[in-house]
Amino acid sequence: MTGTVAIITPAFEASRWIGPCARSVLDQTYADWEHWIIADDGLDYEALLASAGLRDPRQRFLASGTIGGGASRARNVALDRIGAPYAAILDVDDRFKPAKLSEAVAALAHHAIVSVALDEFDEAGTRLRLVGAGPDRELAPAVYKWTCLSMDSMLVWDRRKADARYDLTLTNMTDLELLLQLFRTVPAAWHLGTPLHDYLKLGVSMSNGPGVTEKMIRSKREILRRLETGFYTLADPAGPEGMAAFLRLSLKAEETYSAAAALRPGLLFEDHLEPMLR
After folding, report:
1. pLDDT at 95
2. Among 25, 138, 139, 155, which is 20 to 30 Å from 46 by CA?
3. What is the mean pLDDT of residues 232-248?
4. Which domains does the chain have, with CATH numbers?
């Protein structure tokens, strides 16, 4: 199966990260891609990549129209512009492993949504853990989060079969909310259990840093409320309750995480949550 993949990368104060991010796209074994880089800070990322010898004709450069308007708004700017049949999200501080697109596009022949296991690192390059590693398998929405228990921006999807935009009313968990929109027309995703995406857990980001826990809890509660009140009509009728069950456990984990981290400095939220999911 072939087709152009539009890779969407919002960039805010990202001069440190844009080079490795772009290089990981250039190193893909699948060559039919467009890399859409959306500046959310007024920087000229085209010039930055050119100066580093990383400029490529398949790169596309946009401006979000704001300064610090947020990743969701910047991603929507690109989603409104792209014409490629497939879309993939790549945060500017993350990287694709070389086979990600080739493996994902092959899986899109039989499933309209493809997720991948991820390799999680800190800023120093130390590996923290794997998330979602294991056999390749189908994941219905009711069980999806029990495997992909954190970080939901690693998707590749067929825009002709599932389309969505990011919810600008949520401060966090927007990747999960987008996935729920995609599941409205797609009954299940295909999960590639080989880690094909490097996720960098930064000290300060949308998912880490001061005040983030409270925002995460508010967003989880809002998505849970939507699930419980029938806001999402999913192609798999069992999906909403399965997702809701995960979020209830995740909220319980949020309540006890601070105390657990005080006893185990450096404890990852995923390592705190995963035993509860078992």
Report:
1. 97
2. 155
3. 97
4. 1-95 (3.90.550.10), 97-278 (no CATH)
Tokens 């890779």 correspond to 7
**CA 2, CA 184: separation in Å to the nearest integer?**
25
Per-residue pLDDT tens digits for 180-219? 999 999 999 999 999 999 999 886 444 444 457 899 999 9
Q: Would you tell me the crossing angle of helices 212-228 and 239-263 to the nearest 10 degrees?
A: 160
Euclidean distance between CA atoms 118 and 147, whole angstroms: 11
**Cβ-based burial of 95 (10 A; exposed 0-12, middle 13-18, buried ≥19):** buried
d(CA 181, CA 161): 12
φ, ψ of residue 29 in degrees (nearest 5): -75, -15
Amino acid identity, position 193: G
